[in-house]
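Subject: TIM barrel protein

B.,
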Amino acid sequence: MKLGISSYSLYQAMQMDGMTILEAIDWIAGIGGEHVEIVPLGFDLKQTPELIGQIRERAAKAGIAVSNYAIGANFITDTEEAYESEIRRVMREVDIAHALGVKLMRHDVASRQDTSIIRFQEDLPRIAEACRRIADYAAQYGITTSLENHGYYVQASDRVQAVLHAVGRPNYKTTLDVGNFVCVDEQPVIAVKKNIAYASMVHVKDFYIRPADRNPGEGWFRSAGGGYLRGAIAGQGDLDLREILRIVKRSGYDGFLSIEYEGMEECRKGTKIAFENVRRIWEEV
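Prediction pasted inline below.
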């Protein structure tokens, strides 16, 4: 297992303090991180392709791996032309993943206002076809593509599995975010147990959780069922992170664990404490 950090965790510092992705890599290595996950927020690898080689070089110099490349996508489109265009766009992002030297890439698949199971079942064949074509394209590079459980529409563990099985490719798996299941009011311990066998990448995240009738005020958002959620430092929130990490460890998973911090504390402080907590808990469970 290699414990590292998603660059998304440091997005606040990139936005407010001008931290660059190269400086983020140095910072991650400086706190003991073993890998960096590249999420292109605060920088654009398409507009500044020279940054791709610089990321590889900086990570190598810092002695850490570049683990995963994570981007957005949505195959729910109004026209066939737009659908094909989105598939081609994501394939170009696969080329960037290859240039980064990663063997893992997460891309989103679908977003809708109507998140009903009926709508999901209607959309599933087209979602799966797009993901299958992209996975087949990625196979030439030895890259495994993946679906993350987020965005409400394809977030519950059963919906993630439905997409995985419909795609039916050995190099198409899930980026398993252990915390995101609460956004659709699913119990994370159970959901992680159901989906860990399909994971190519694991995100570690924590949340504070409050009932729908107890509005905590500023800084919170709503789950699908109306509950209140706020990002927490991993190990300090309401998730049973010890049991979740025990499940991941006992499953035999031996890939990358990536801290994904999105709490209200200053991001470097929150990320560092989360990293230290997860490292300690992993050793204990």
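The CA atoms of residues 40 and 47 lie 11 Å apart.

T.
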